[in-house]
Amino acid sequence: MAKIIPRPQLSLLEQLYFVEVFKGMALTIKHAVRSLAKPETIPVLNYPEVQPELPAEHRSEHRLMKRADGTSRCVACYMCQTACPARCITIVAEESPDGDIEKRPATFDIDWLLCVFCGLCVEACPCDAIRMDTGKAILVEDSRDAFIANKDRLMDWSPADYPAEDIISQEAPGGLLNEQALAAMQGGMFSAGDVADVADKETC
Amino acid sequence: MEIILFIAKFGLAFIPLSCIAIMIFLERKGASIIQDRVGPNRAAIKIPGIGSVRGFGMIHNISDSVKLFFKEDFLPKHAHKWYYILAPMLPLMTAILTPALIPWFAPISLEGVEVSGAIINANSGLLMLFALGALSVYGVVIGSWASHNKYSLLGGMRASAMMISYEVSMGLSVVGLLLLIGSFNMTDIVEWQAANAWGVVVQPVGCLLFIVSMFAETGRTPFCVSEGESEIVGGFHTEYSSIRFALFFMGEYAHIVIASALIATLFFGGYHLPGLNTEVIHAHTAGVLAGLLAVKALMLALFCLMTTRQKKLYGALKASDKAVRLKEYSLFQIIFGGGALVAVLIAAVLMFIPMDGLLSELLTAAIQISIVMAKTMFFCWVFVWVRWTVPRFRYDHIMALGWKVMLNVALVNLVITAIVYKLLIETGVISG
Predict the structure, then answer these.
(1) Which of B26, B28, B29, B35 to probe by mutation at the A interface, max A CB count within 10 Å?
(2) For chain A, percent helix, then strand, then coil, each to nearest 5?
(3) pTM for the whole thing?
(4) Residue A54 placed within a domain
């Protein structure tokens, strides 16, 4: 059954057209004067000189989190590779020299040409080893091969680029920094349940 | 003396040409400020000692013209060569010829030689203007025909049909005014308005019809059917590239300037401002000039304020090119602020310079030219303003509006004007 939408009936003034035109012109001149008199109200950035402020939830290029000793937190559990809808993650596992940890990734490749930046890998990771908070979203490379990021490239980030007051953005909890990170979390940023979750991950 | 006058009048023909650059800037910046954008500001020139200067997007004019001049002048194999080359010249040619008929200042006498404000002070002035204005449609029609391309031809057909339709109501809308004035001479028309009332006061309906017809004549939004990217590729200029394409656009913008000057002259008093007759300006040349300079100083001060605000805004941002941009803003602060001070100083000095006959005559003419130009630029802005406000009409709506509404309103307006004028004369309210 088709829905019949009645044609809007124009009033006499609207049918005259000129009155509506003048109304529209009043609106546009208001915008023009506002743009000139109050440039701060223009919602435009002088990109790329001025960079936008990205929200914390913004998903961009991945990075692999590090332990305090500089090794990757990844335990090669294949959870992210399994969760990935674009199948852009390729992990090859090997035995870990650490007695407490079973495996570690020999290679960890992400093909950014396949990646859809959905963030499911971050959700899936049980160890908080992969994050998408680098803020880098412009991928410019010369060849297709250069878009495949290996483990070294994913771990090549500096703590100086992340907020110093937010300790868990510097180092993932666990190892030497665990006490410190837990203290920061208990300072009010997270609920008790979150802290308990993180404490469970101590074996990562 | 004759030769100097000839050269000076020749210079007036370049008014629409020099206004083209301003029009392009006005169009882009007008669009951006109406749509809450920053607008074009990327082209920059490096001035040694100052750094890169963007000039609020003015530099884009230079880069555009350089690009258009040096692009390949492509001539399609299937085009009719002679007419293809001829077509872009026609709109610009007519647009350069028409300022000769517009009175830029009141007639002055220089050492006994009577000089009229229009270069051609013809008694058929308005008719000649309309005739020349109508010629510009030939550029579109010939260009579209010579392109030998169905989209070009469709665009040209649409443009020519529309322009011819609106020419009728354009002509009829001024007849009411001409009935009151009784002369086709452009100087007479302005003098009548100075003596009685502006055309917009005595003929408000005619004025509105004339402005709308002028929008159609120049092929501007809401009547821009001659080009439609979504319908007929580029319209009449589909096959044109490089400077030939630019000539079409220069013709369009020059036509806008001429149309604005015509609206200002016919309905908004031309070189006359209320209270500023030619005699008044002539008697108080220094005072009027000082007043104009004060207005200019005020505008420059406003620009300076605007630059200061933008500088402050940019200074608060985290920008990678902050130092360069702040330097440029400082430069423009100095230019605008200094300009305002210089204008005030000149205005103050003018008070002490005795204005004798010749100087006074020339300055009167200069003041009146600037009055006409100010009005012209205002109507140029109205063209831009309307373009970014009103959506375009469908083609059959344009035809219906032109033939079924505007023509009838113009005719009724003419009849009512004639009856009222006759009655007023018969009852002795005014003398005929």
Answers:
(1) B35
(2) 40, 10, 50
(3) 0.81
(4) no
